[in-house]
Amino acid sequence: MRQHSRFSFRHISSIQVTNRLNGEPMGYVADLSLGGLRLVAKQPLAVGGCYEMVLHVPEQGERVRQIEAVVICQWSRKDSRRDSFEMGFALDRPSAEFTAMVAQQLPRRRKVF
């Protein structure tokens, strides 16, 4: 059972991810939660590996907010529908910016009955 609510992005590849250390593209975010994220990429990353990422979050207009996150890869699998890989990451050292961004998005996406 999930410990955190998560949200997915309707616009595929709306949040691009790069490696904080070398600036290389890593993929794009498929969904986020307060506990981590799911990344879609062309190449798999090592399970158990620690990665420093920068999430490039689009804002109003042409602005893009950059949010850093240190994560640990929990799992990796080939996506059978596309020529890509999906990987699940747990936050190792959550930044205040990451936590605030996810918390800000979650209430908007909940349905009220």
TrEMBL record:
<dbReference type="GO" id="GO:0035438">
    <property type="term" value="F:cyclic-di-GMP binding"/>
</dbReference>
<protein>
    <submittedName>
        <fullName>PilZ domain-containing protein</fullName>
    </submittedName>
</protein>
<dbReference type="Pfam" id="PF07238">
    <property type="entry name" value="PilZ"/>
</dbReference>
<dbReference type="InterPro" id="IPR009875">
    <property type="entry name" value="PilZ_domain"/>
</dbReference>
<feature type="domain" description="PilZ">
    <location>
        <begin position="6"/>
        <end position="96"/>
    </location>
</feature>
